Amino acid sequence: MGEALRRYVPHAVAARLTRASPIEGGERDVAVLFVDIRGYTSYSEQRAAGAVFSVVNRYTAALSAVIQRRGGTVVEFLGDGLMAVFGRPRRCRIMPRRGRGAHE
């Protein structure tokens, strides 16, 4: 059942559901992180598929470890991109202040 759930929800959520741990409903402030590798398209066009695959695997493994150590949940990988959420399903010790985003 856990494997089937992981296809549709983040690993942390699937783990809670398979352990029958409660998942709280309601609203909560969260921080969402979107990242990708700058220049990935031109980088990948100039290298063999195996080399690109190796770089992306190391990158996503290292980034996932940092996200998890900081209390985040990796929601999705797409090529060189990654989406993570901080504050759900686990509370996050450190949340950014409102209105202090990178694009403001």
**Low-pLDDT segments, ≥5 res:** none
Rg to the nearest angstrom?
16 Å
Number of H- or I-type helical stretches? 4
Reading side by side through the largest sheet, how are the strands ordered?
1-3-2
What structural class do you assign from the helix and strand content? alpha+beta
Q: SSE order, as H and E?
A: HHEHHEE
Number of strands: 3
For the sheet with most strands, the description reads: 3 strands, antiparallel
- Taken as a percent bin, the fraction of beta residues is 15-25%
- Distance between the amino and carboxyl termini: 42 Å
Arithmetic mean of pLDDT: 78
Helix amount, in percent? 25-40%
Which term fits the overall shape? Answer: elongated
Summarize the structure.
With 104 residues, the chain is α+β, with helices and mostly antiparallel strands.
Please give the structural blueprint:
Blueprint: H1 2-6, H2 11-18, E1 31-35, H3 40-45, H4 49-69, E2 72-78, E3 81-86
Antiparallel strand pairs: 1-3, 2-3
